[in-house]
Amino acid sequence: MITKVKAANSPGLLNSGALALTAKEFDIIAALAREEFGLELAKGKEQLVASRLGKLMRDHGFNTFAEYYRHVQKDSTGNALVELIDSLTTNHTSFFREPAHFEFLVQRIFSEQKGHAPMRIWSAVSSTGEEPYTIALTAREHLGPQSPSLPRILASDISTRVLEIARKGMYKEERFQGGVAPWLRKHLLRGEGRSKGWYRMRPEILRMVEFQRINLIEPLPPVGRFTVIFCRNVMIYFSRETQEQLVSRLAACLEPGGYLFVGHSESLSGIHHSLQQIQPAVYKKRDEKG
What we know:
CATH class of the largest domain: Alpha Beta
Mean pLDDT: 87
Number of strands: 12
Radius of gyration: 21 Å
Low-confidence stretches: 1-18
Order of helices and strands: EEHHHHHEHEHEEEHEEHEEE
CATH superfamily of the largest domain: Vaccinia Virus protein VP39
Strand content: 15-25%
């Protein structure tokens, strides 16, 4: 998820410590962000770019934004672009975020699918893994560990950095405090010694999730069809055209009768799509007879 920031009112030269961002440089970086990962950096976000990229540039010894931009363009590994993405965005997530979705998952979708073949569920903006692991934990708790319907979960993100964190399945103890489900800890391993204060997902939970780097604004790789797709709290930061293209691609990846979850701060109203709204932030693909 991308952090909202207050707009700056400096269209000209912006200082970030010893570094400065010109209006032309901002336009070039904004175009790169839009083309590579769909982020719309509108006028007024100059200070955001100056401060966040300024820190990254100082860490790497770049003296100007133009010099840094050339470095990103020339880096054939793609690592520099991932660093830029991670600097401009904040991967804010939590376990059981927007709990109404997980209530719907249990009460409606799991009840429909119970006893059937394994479901496929896609966490399309998985960040550091809390969302896909919440799906896995919820499924194992409510379907049972031997259920033939236990889902196989694809977790994807554009950032290789957050995917590496997610693959480990390790989280600080405070991530599991507050309003998380009381049954959750039985699915976790408590760290000891140097890992004290941490929990790790049990192996059976880790095995339910496969991680893959996917850029949602590019043509999707052959990921197959899914019973459920979670794509939450990212489209609000895309242009209307990009939103429409993405929803079309996601709908094509749903099984007939499959469900798309978007964030509660998002809506598909105003864009063309073929899905039926079931309740706020939940959409369904019509079955073949519909």
